[in-house]
Amino acid sequence: MIAQMVNAAPRVLVFDSGVGGLSVFDAIAASGHALDLDYAADNAWLPYGLKSDEQLRARVPALVTSLVAQWAPDIVVVACNTASTIALEQVRAALSVPVVGVVPPIKPAAALTRTGVIGLLATPATVRRTYTTDLITQFAMDKRVVRFGSAALVQAAEQKLRGEAPDPAAITEAIEGLFGAPGGAEIDVVALACTHFPLLTQELAAASPRPAVWLDSGEAIARRVAHVLIAEAGQARINRAAFTDAEAARDLYPAFRARGFESFLAINAAPEFSTTPAP
Ligand code: DGL
């Protein structure tokens, strides 16, 4: 009898500081491709948006490299704007597998706006990055871009996925920061440039003083991943989720289980980032 060769589905590692990458993970899982999906969160260091560029440039490539050595994915998705806009080149240089990053969706936002005013909602780090300013210069020079940075909204998304009510003050502050800014009343498209924020689209839209398109990068990233891997049609298989602070992630396990994760691991944050079964 001739043994039948069964091609294993390509393995995808989705990485973020916390649960934000799940907004990208959800799009990949729903994209209709036969992929094996793992997730890793550096929640011991959350929020990345309040860390310095130097800290992230040192930490993210080292951590991702260690995970790749252990899990051997075929592609890494840095599902974090804050990490991508500062450390993507370093991550790519450290790895031999393809790396897809998430950058602020300025280009599609500029194509969509009718009023010519775009809101840009990101972490405090991402709103002030040269990378972000360069994207605006390149794709939205003839538009007005109102930027607002929020770390509180990151925590609100984490709260929501823990099953708690997201802090309404964080939502209000972000809405006022955008629509209350000079020119902000005309915003008709908001670029969600932090992967945590699509998890709060309902709350943001409900608090918004006017209808707006809440634009995120999830589906674009999912398309990119399928394209790079030349992925076959099929169903995604959900595997492991790992956390640098597994204890703090416990309350999040139900949200991960609801997405099909069954195996939870702790990433020993220092010095070698090795993973062990979570207690
Ligand atoms: N989810 C991340 C992003 O897309 C950052 C959240 C954080 O500040 O850790 O920017």
Characteristic terms for this protein:
alpha/beta; Rossmann fold; seven-stranded mixed sheet; four-stranded parallel sheet; 12 helices; 11 strands; globular; binds D-glutamic acid
Walk me through the structure.
The protein is 41% helix and 19% strand. The protein folds into two domains: 11-102 and 219-277, Rossmann fold; 106-216, 3-Layer(aba) Sandwich (Rossmann fold). The protein has helices spanning 21-29, 53-71, 81-94, 106-112, 124-128, 130-139, 152-161, 168-179, 201-207, 218-229, 246-249, 253-257, and strands at 11-16, 36-41, 75-78, 99-101, 117-122, 144-149, 189-192, 213-215, 237-243, 263-267, 275-277. It is α/β, with parallel strands linked by helices and 279 residues long. It has twelve helices and eleven strands. The strands form two sheets. Strands 4-3-1-2-9-10-11 form a seven-stranded mixed sheet, sandwiched between helices. A four-stranded parallel sheet has the order 6-5-7-8, sandwiched between helices.
Could you provide a short overview of the structure?
It contains 12 helices and 11 strands.
Uncertain runs are: none
Q: Helix/strand/pairing class, anyone?
A: alpha/beta
Overall mean pLDDT score? 95
- Rg over CA atoms, rounded to whole Å, is 19 Å
Write the CATH architecture name of the largest domain. 3-Layer(aba) Sandwich
Strand content: 15-25%
The total tally of domains equals 2
| Overall 3D form | globular
Ends apart, CA distance between termini: 44 Å
Small molecules bound: D-glutamic acid
CATH uppermost class of the largest domain:
Alpha Beta
CATH fold-level label of the largest domain? Rossmann fold
Q: Which H/E pattern describes the elements?
A: EHEHEHEHEHHEHHEHEHEHHEE
- State the helicity in percent bands: 40-55%
Largest sheet, spatial ordering of strands: 4-3-1-2-9-10-11
Number of strands: 11
- Largest beta-sheet details: 7 strands, mixed
Q: What's the helix count?
A: 12
